[in-house]
Write a structure and sequence with these properties.
2 copies of one chain form a homodimer. Chain A is mostly helical. Chain A has 7 helices and 2 strands. Chains A and B meet through α1, α4, α5, α6 and α7 of A and α1, α4, α5, α6 and α7 of B. The structure holds a DNA duplex.
Chain lengths: ~200, ~200
DNA sequence: CGGCGCATGTAACTTGTTACATGATTCC
DNA sequence: GGAATCATGTAACAAGTTACATGCGCCG
């Protein structure tokens, strides 16, 4: 009976730093949290309204909204801060991960070796791009030391990504090596069969 | 417009090896796939019936069902095999992982250092248990070489878990070291304030 | 004047979890 | 007799995605 509500706590966490619009929340998640989090507008906006009604955040007319259509800033209330702190004390829920690449690899003897190799290469490239972003972000953080009060935490979160993504890359290399070897062996078998 | 249907492909994949009951499918996922996959009965049973109606699998009275209540074996059809092969050819969908531990760490300056350290230790222990299982499973595989025809694939999937879980462990160690350091510094600050 | 960025929001849908109901057999 | 294991299934709910509707201002 652990009440998940992850979107809610993400919002509370971000608003504990500064008031934001729904749009800004989405942007922050996409730019800075992308490798370990995701949210869609379909979750954010209804949750913001719900939270406003419940009094954990306050909806305010956005004074900066000169351009574009009307917009709203959300501000955390003391009730909201309380709820955030309670959540921080709760045990972490086990993450559920479903790696489609592993499922495909597991059953890849039903398909072609070339296909699964291409898919692993694609996986490797996608994650390599992210690794590059990690480096840029880390440099930026190190150069602008002290800019965030949660600087140390941000660096630790980044370090997680760097280590795990490096493990992904290593695995891709080794798996591709093994598959290449098998491919060559299989080719040999065919040659034998032909003779 | 990529049609996910991951449960469906998991079922097709498993049934491509041998006919199984819904209960057996769940057990295999829990025992052998647990670190990279999960399914619940609420997904498995309705999907099995749907797939049977669509003709990609066949529902059969289980001849082994001497004990317990009546049970059914499901067998893949040629249409099902075709669908499995089509899926194997499709590009892999990007996995979305939400690491609650990272979200909590990110906002942990709102809570206590001790709490987040405990949570990281818990994360570390949980994953260490899994690492132990990886080792046992690998030994078993190496001793019973050739028992599965997809032996090589299973080993590669296992290797993924080993590498990624090792990265988790390394990260936990380093993060705990950094947090410990910060804790000692903060304690120093308090001491100064007190004077 | 058309596209892009800012900005909010909903409806329909898919996906996944949880709790519950049912029921037979085996083992203590 | 009661717990554990085998075994199937559903209903209610929670979570999450996608596509769409709306609309202003700016820039070229």
């Amino acid at each position: 009976m652990s009440s998940s509500k992850k979107t809610r706590y993400l919002i509370l966490g971000l608003l504990s730093e500064s008031p934001l619009t729904g749009y800004e929340i989405k942007k922050i998640v996409d730019l800075r949290f992308a490798y370990f989090w995701s949210e869609s507008y379909g979750q954010i906006y209804p949750e913001l309204n719900k939270m406003n009604e419940e009094g954990v955040i306050h909806k305010l007319e956005n004074p900066e909204s000169t351009k574009g259509r009307n917009s709203y800033k959300y501000e955390i209330t003391s009730e909201g801060l309380e709820e955030l702190k309670e959540w921080l004390e709760c045990p972490v829920e086990k993450e559920v991960i479903r790696y489609e690449i592993l499922l495909k690899l597991y059953f890849s003897n039903m398909g072609s070796t070339d296909t699964i190799m291409e898919q692993i290469k694609e996986f490797q490239m996608t994650h390599k791009k992210q690794q590059h972003l990690f480096e840029l972000f880390q440099k930026d953080l190190e150069e602008n030391f002290d800019e965030h009060d949660n600087h140390a935490e941000v660096l630790m979160v980044l370090m997680f990504g760097q280590k795990v993504w490096a493990a992904y890359d290593e695995w891709c290399q080794e798996a591709l090596k093994l598959l290449q070897k098998r491919k060559e062996l299989t080719k040999g078998d065919f040659d034998e069969e032909r003779n």
